[in-house]
Each structure stands twice: as structure tokens, then as C-alpha cells.
Description:
Blueprint: H1 3-40, H2 43-48, H3 50-66, H4 73-139, E1 140-143, E2 147-153, H5 169-181, E3 187-192, H6 199-219, E4 227-231, H7 244-250, E5 252-257
Parallel strand pairs: 3-4
Antiparallel strand pairs: 1-2, 2-5, 3-5
Helix pairs in contact: 1-3, 1-4, 3-4, 4-5
Amino acid sequence: xxxxxxxxxxxxxxxxxxxxxxxxxxxxxxxxxxxxxxxxxxxxxxxxxxxxxxxxxxxxxxxxxxxxxxxxxxxxxxxxxxxxxxxxxxxxxxxxxxxxxxxxxxxxxxxxxxxxxxxxxxxxxxxxxxxxxxxxxxxxxxxxxxxxxxxxxxxxxxxxxxxxxxxxxxxxxxxxxxxxxxxxxxxxxxxxxxxxxxxxxxxxxxxxxxxxxxxxxxxxxxxxxxxxxxxxxxxxxxxxxxxxxxxxxxxxxxxxxxxxxxxxxxxx
Length: 268
């Protein structure tokens, strides 16, 4: 092979290499341009990662300017790569920001639902409280100087005994619920008997019956510090003891309620 032929082959080879390099540069430039155009047209990306989008555009512009010069293929591919990476970083930042926004919205929604649930529970409690107040008011009466007083009749106890019958549990449970919904109220539980039998025995029985009611309240969760217990025996009858009907009404336990602020009328 002559020297002229060898030089010709070298020129052809160099042109081929230059052509391949040019193709790779054009491909890299095209991909970078398409990626940049996509992020530039995405409002979420522009809002979340504007700096990365600007850097991607600057790198792409430099690559495009260099592409018009011979022998700058590696530089073109380098800046096209940088543009491509900045565009990808911008999109990733946008994705993370959107996820954070979604999480913030979900958290806000969770808080809203929790508030609605608390309000619903509060509304339910308030409605239940009004219903219980109505029930207590139906079983109680307003007495001068003593406030609201609820009377538990003798039928809740066996004759001569201080233990509450099972039939008393429903009434006592309403009282417990009322006190739970009104945590500032306190009560005084007063026991009374008729005049049958010795006064000392009547005094003991009256106090034991009042204590039996107090014990049941405590067992059902009422703080004992909110309860006073007093036995009056056959004092303060509400009816004459001359008849069985009158004696039955005198055998009773009275629940004296404080006002809403916890002020309880003085004991007799």
C-alpha cells in the first residue's frame, strides 16, 4: 500500500469516527432536550424545583451551542448529560414535594375527622347528660334550703335489712352516670326509718342503709370523696307513723345533690 493510500484510509477512518461521535452527541442532545421540555411544561415541577429546571436549561443551552463546533462532541455529551440529570433531579424533587403535600393533606384530614369524632362524642355525651338530668329530675324534687333531693323508697331494701335489692341497681346506675357526667357535683346520702323499734337501732339501720347506697356508688366508680353519709333514724318523718302507708314512706334513703359548682346544702 502506498503512502497516499494509507493517508486516504486514515482520513476516511477519522471521518467515520467523527461521524459516530457526532451521532452520539446528537442522540444525547435530543434526549436531554426532550427531557427538559417535559419538565419545563410540568407546572408541578416548575413550582417545586425551579432551580433544578433552570440548571437543566442552562446545561442544555451550552450543549446546543457547542454542537455547532467540530471536535466538541465529548463536551456536548457532557453538558447534555448534566441537563438530563438536572431534569431528572427536578422531577424527583417535585415527586417528593407532592408526596409531602399529600401527607400534609392526609394529616389535616385525619385531624379534621378526629375533631369531628370528638365533637360527635361530646354531642352524644351532652345529649346523654340531658337525658340523665331529665331522669334524675323525674325521680327527685326541689326542697327549700336543701336543693335537689332524690328519694329511694323502702322497697329497695328487705325489711329490717341494710343490703340493697337487685332492683335498686338500675336506679343507682343512673345516679352513677349522672355523677360521672357532672364531675363537680357531690352528694349526701341520708338514711331514715319509721318510729317502730328502739331509736338506737333505727339510727344504726338508717346509717347502714345510706352506707349501702354509698358503697354501691363507690363500687361503680364514684370517688368516695364526693359522697357524704348521714343516718337520722326516725327523725324527720315525711308522714305520720300512725299508718303502714305513712311508716313505709318514712323508711327511705334520700340523695341530696349539690349545685353544679359542688356546693352542698348543710346537713340537718
